Amino acid sequence: MIDTLAEGFMSEYVAFVEFLPRLTIALVVVGVIYLVGLGVASGIVKILKRSSMQEAYHHYFKTLIKGITIFICIIVFLNMVGYSVLSASLLAGGGLTAVMLGFAFKDIGENFLAGFLMAFSRPFNTNDLIETGGITGRVKSIHLRHTHIRTSEGCDVFVPSAQLFTKPLSNYTLDGLRRGGLTVGIDYADDVDKALNILREVVQKTSGVLQSPGTSASIKNFTDNYVELQAFFWINTKDQEKGLAKIRTSTMNNCRVQLIEEGFTLSSEVSTALTMSPLDIQLQKNGGL
């Protein structure tokens, strides 16, 4: 019994000694591959930092390259130590698992894929004012699966990347310009040309309105009760202290005040109804008459 155990131990020992050089070479090769993968990941991150790509993607690409490197190391190691069948099984099983997970988590995978593709051609950056799917707000942070948007009402919305990738998206900050406008009604008897000049001058002098592109004013419509005028102006969307709503309110109020001072009659679709109550009049005849 003892002799049998001793012979078995010696046999395994000899096999291990014979296997040791192959194991050592495999570990060295895997170590080199892993170090090369780390170097590639670091190099790509340095390149991305010099580009306009968001910092949120730097960590993702670094982690992705590391993951691929580790998987390659496992496959190479198994093949070098003589477990090629096992490595082939891992490759086949990994593909099957990926297909199953793709069906099980279709929406999540779709968002990740959309985020990955948008990393190379993203139409917005952090702090940009965008609108998508009826949601308007500033971009607070960008992630692979979603984008964090904060609306003017203070609501934090996390928009899936698939929506940003497949649906129309408006970026009000890409060129730094956004157009605003206002409408006002004046009486048909008023001087339209004078009113238009007043609108242009007042709007152009309002704080927050850009001098270039210039302000424009024109007749919008003829209604039953008044002549409807409109004026358009441009603002700098990157100036978060002066938003469109604030500047538009200032321009409307300034135009209202100036038009009233110039004697214009401001009209609207709301009319004032006067109710005439009957009056009881008693006549008393004077005795002297």
Automatic annotation (TrEMBL):
<dbReference type="InterPro" id="IPR045275">
    <property type="entry name" value="MscS_archaea/bacteria_type"/>
</dbReference>
<dbReference type="InterPro" id="IPR023408">
    <property type="entry name" value="MscS_beta-dom_sf"/>
</dbReference>
<keyword id="KW-1133">Transmembrane helix</keyword>
<feature type="transmembrane region" description="Helical">
    <location>
        <begin position="60"/>
        <end position="78"/>
    </location>
</feature>
<dbReference type="InterPro" id="IPR011066">
    <property type="entry name" value="MscS_channel_C_sf"/>
</dbReference>
<feature type="transmembrane region" description="Helical">
    <location>
        <begin position="23"/>
        <end position="48"/>
    </location>
</feature>
<dbReference type="Pfam" id="PF00924">
    <property type="entry name" value="MS_channel_2nd"/>
</dbReference>
<protein>
    <recommendedName>
        <fullName>Mechanosensitive ion channel protein MscS</fullName>
    </recommendedName>
</protein>
<dbReference type="GO" id="GO:0005886">
    <property type="term" value="C:plasma membrane"/>
</dbReference>
<keyword id="KW-1003">Cell membrane</keyword>
<dbReference type="InterPro" id="IPR049278">
    <property type="entry name" value="MS_channel_C"/>
</dbReference>
<comment type="similarity">
    <text>Belongs to the MscS (TC 1.A.23) family.</text>
</comment>
<feature type="domain" description="Mechanosensitive ion channel MscS C-terminal">
    <location>
        <begin position="182"/>
        <end position="241"/>
    </location>
</feature>
<keyword id="KW-0472">Membrane</keyword>
<keyword id="KW-0812">Transmembrane</keyword>
<dbReference type="InterPro" id="IPR006685">
    <property type="entry name" value="MscS_channel_2nd"/>
</dbReference>
<dbReference type="InterPro" id="IPR010920">
    <property type="entry name" value="LSM_dom_sf"/>
</dbReference>
<dbReference type="GO" id="GO:0008381">
    <property type="term" value="F:mechanosensitive monoatomic ion channel activity"/>
</dbReference>
<dbReference type="Pfam" id="PF21082">
    <property type="entry name" value="MS_channel_3rd"/>
</dbReference>
<dbReference type="InterPro" id="IPR011014">
    <property type="entry name" value="MscS_channel_TM-2"/>
</dbReference>
<feature type="domain" description="Mechanosensitive ion channel MscS">
    <location>
        <begin position="110"/>
        <end position="173"/>
    </location>
</feature>
